[in-house]
Amino acid sequence: MAQSYKTLKENFVSNLSGGTVSEINWVTAVAPAAYLLWAALQSRQGYFLEYGPPAFLTDLLLNVGGILLALTMYSSNAILLNTLLVSPAVLLCVLPSTTNYRKRASKPLANKPAESTGAKEELDPLPIRPFITIYRGGMIVVTCLAILAVDFRIFPRRFAKVETWGTSLMDVGVGSFVFSAGLVSARPVLQARFAGMKSSFRSQLQSAFRASLPLLVLGFIRLYSVKGLDYAEHVTEYGVHWNFFFTLAFLPPFVAILQSVSALVPYTGLVSILISGLYQTLLECTRLKAFILTAPRTDFMSQNREGVFSFWGCVAIFLAGQALGFDVLPRNPSQTSATDSDWQQRKRLLKRLAVWSAVWVSLFYSVTSYNIGFAFQVSRRLANQPYVFWVSAFNCAQITVFCLVETAFFPGVYKAANRTLERRECEKATSRVLRAFNRNGLAIFLLANLLTGLVNLTLDTLSMSRIGAMVVLVGYAALLTAVAVGLDAWNLSIKL
What we know:
Elements: H1 3-12, H2 21-28, H3 30-45, H4 53-71, H5 78-94, H6 101-105, H7 130-149, H8 169-194, H9 201-228, H10 235-238, H11 244-259, H12 268-285, H13 288-294, H14 300-303, H15 305-328, H16 342-368, H17 385-409, H18 419-428, H19 432-439, H20 441-458, H21 466-489
């Protein structure tokens, strides 16, 4: 890559100040709006029960194409795009449903053998949550689209990562990836608890290091490929050598260490608040903030100070996601048989999600408001406490909205007679495309990084027209979706 062009690319993503939180909320609201229309088509017409090419294309256009439009052509008209998605859903709810929908819905899903529905079986204490699958799949879609779209002029600069202070779409995307990882990390912990298994601290640490090893390898591969190919990089994002894969790799061991102290502070959410508060105190009361922002890069620590110290904010975000997972993933102990009320399950979910959302939103405004708080500014570069609270509030609110949509259109997901029927009902409430992205999320994210590098090495993205940029982005999105859905169809899960 020519040095002059490399400099242009680096300048293109540097010294940015971001946009407003409200605009970010409207743009990202396209994901639940698309799921709303998908759910209306499924619940009222049974459109995705027979998953052929038309159903796949519609699924792709709604849950991937809608997000791509929000990031590019409709970036300044997100409210209009949301309206265009919600209006048909409302119309479908008003019109009578397809007459043979109930007959089709009662049949086993395609390629699924008919199974006995009368067997007496305890329901899973950790049921599949379709709204969690949809949330995580949508988050991965947004992340994968943004990391390439940011290199084109059609992607607004206010959506790209800010230099130091401010909020942007890509900033909340980084934190959301960590929050989502924390959310699903609660499942194996809960499974061990329900099984009555107790593992030693040593075994937990060994398991954490095994989980970290593939991510460390990916981190080193990215490091050497970026340096070897003289690829454009934004040094103030993570540092000279650090990258996001290293942050993800070091999270499991540190969380395992923190969980060993959980007997002293049993509430994971409180541990998250304490860590972010201690880190913020160090930023404000010592020279740490000045060191991160202005120190010369003379040794390994100073060269990678952004990645090293923002890691502590990521730990707090990871624990915030894990705390939510502990609360919303398990079924109530009294609701593990077929006679329990689905509405009671729904009320519990919605109540806890609403409480968590209110807590994080209140904390965010308490530290950023000029009138009632400290008026701290959000900084993704520091991963400071306002950033932790903002990411946690954003993700809890998003999950709450997805749960509301699921509740409105698929109210009977959790009242099946046994585990087999419950899994079947969950599949009916889940987009195949988003399920596929969720199933192999990290592998698809890695593929997205490789394709992004390939595009940037072969095309002059800065000079491409809007039409040319959209052609590349649509092809890229279609390829990622085809790989994800193909892996899911072949029942392959790539664990990294």
